[in-house]
Amino acid sequence: MDNAEAILLAFEASADELVSAICGRGLIFGLDDEVCSTSHTEDCERELQIKEEVQQERELQVIKCSPLREKRRAHDKILKAKSIEDLSGAVQVFEISTGPAPTSMERSISARQSRRKVMRDA
User: Please, is 90 exposed, middle or buried when counting C-beta atoms within 10 Å of its C-beta (0-12, 13-18, 19+)?
Assistant: First the structure.
C-alpha cells in the first residue's frame, strides 16, 4: 500500500466518523421526525393564480402623483405674530362666515385674542 492509498483510507474513515456523528446528533435533536407535505389541489392553485393576477392588475392601476411645490412662507413673521393684523401680507386671513375653514394657526391666534378681550372686559 502506497502513501496515497493510506491517506485515502484515513480520509474515508474520518468522513464515516463525521457522518455518524452528524446522524447521532440528528437523532438526539429530532431529525428522526417525519414531515409530511401535500401539494395544492388544482382548485386551490387556480385561486392563488387569480389572486396573483388581481394583485398585478392593482399594481398596474396605481396613479402616479407628483407633489406640489411648497409655498414659501414668512415663518419668522408668522411665528412672531401677536394679532391678526401682524399677519397681513404673510398669510391670507378669512372670516369664518365668508371664507374657507381657518387653519390651526388662525384658530390659535383667534382664541388668544378672544381670551385677551375677555380678560380686558372683566
Answer: middle
Q: Report the predicted TM-score, pTM, of the whole model to 2 decimal places.
A: 0.24
Which residue bears the cell 362666515? 97
Q: What's the total number of domains in the chain?
A: 1
CA pseudo-torsion sign 103, 104, 107, 109: negative
pLDDT number for residue 105: 67
Q: Which amino acid does the sequence have at 3?
A: N
Examine residue 58 and state whether it is found in any structural domain, yes or no. Answer: no
Helix (H) or strand (E) holding 114: helix 104-121
User: Is 69 among the domain residues?
Assistant: no
In a domain, 107, yes or no: yes
Which pLDDT value is given to residue 111? 64
Give tens-digit pLDDT for 17-48: 777 787 777 777 776 566 565 665 677 788 88
Kindly state whether residue 5 falls inside one of the protein's structural domains: no
Domain enclosing residue 90, as ranges: 75-121
